[in-house]
Design goal:
- There is one protein chain.
- By secondary structure, the protein is α+β, with helices and mostly antiparallel strands.
- Helix 1 (about 10-20) runs antiparallel to helix 3 (about 85-95) and helix 4 (about 115-125) runs antiparallel to helix 5.
- It has helices at about 10-20, 55-60, 85-95, 115-125, 190-210, and strands at about 25-30, 30-40, 40-50, 65-70, 130-135, 160-165, 165-175, 175-185.
- The protein has a 4-stranded antiparallel β-sheet. A 4-stranded antiparallel β-sheet has the order 5-8-7-6, with helices on one face.
- The protein folds into 2 domains: about 10-105, no CATH class; about 115-210, Beta-Lactamase, CATH 3.30.450.
Length: about 210
């Protein structure tokens, strides 16, 4: 990095990417402290002192002067809250700095506080639920996974269920956003679908209460 260049979240992340760093790094971003986890240079999890994770934690510090204050190559990520490729993540951060107006379509949408609270309550009573994320919908819905098992009746809304070796992901796509509910292999697909339906009922109530 150029010595004359003010270090930002973007330049720091690019440095870790080029180093192909794996492990944990602690950053000082303005008045906040951010902890990041990487796997071979790709950011997989982020958490700030306020408990925010993923993009929500990153976006609050994206424009601040950033300093690396600690690294630990032996510490593995406790979860995965960042799912953008490094290239897309860099594009989003460039957009935050006002360099690229098109990149914002890839930025995850911050979770509604009430939706987060409902998920935390669900996680306590439904063993196997692992994480909840929201993000902006991709502009081309043609390329869906071959593991799609169910589609919603509404023309612009659909449900996608993807099953992998580590578990399953339930995704609701509609209203310009995607809501992803992830579970490990201990939760059946039927239980995951029911959890998704419960989450959508909560979302519907939030929309009806919205002004």
């Amino acid at each position: 990095m150029n010595a004359a260049q003010t270090p930002t979240m973007l330049t720091v992340l690019r440095d870790f990417y080029h180093e192909s760093f794996s492990g944990c790094a602690r950053l000082k971003c303005g008045n906040d402290t951010l902890t990041l986890w990487f796997v071979r240079g790709a950011l997989t999890h982020a958490k700030n002192e306020g408990g925010e994770v993923g993009w929500h934690a990153l976006s609050s510090a994206s424009k601040c002067r950033t300093e690396v204050v600690g690294k630990d190559a032996s510490e593995l990520p406790p979860e995965r809250s960042v799912r953008l490729t490094p290239e897309r993540l860099f594009a989003v951060l460039e957009d935050e700095l006002g360099r690229n107006g098109k990149a914002q379509q890839f930025a995850p949408i911050p979770l509604h506080a009430h939706l987060e609270a409902r998920f935390r309550e669900m996680k306590k009573r439904i063993n196997g639920l692992s994480s909840l994320h929201t993000r902006a919908s991709q502009p081309s819905p043609q390329t869906e996974s071959a593991n799609t098992s169910h589609s919603g009746a509404a023309e612009r809304e659909r449900i996608v269920l993807e099953i992998g070796p580590r578990g399953a992901t339930w995704t609701h796509i509609g209203d310009g956003q995607e809501i992803l509910l992830e579970a490990d292999t201990s939760l059946s697909t039927a239980e995951l679908l029911r959890a998704g339906e419960e989450l959508m009922m909560e979302l519907g109530q939030l929309k009806r209460r919205a002004i």
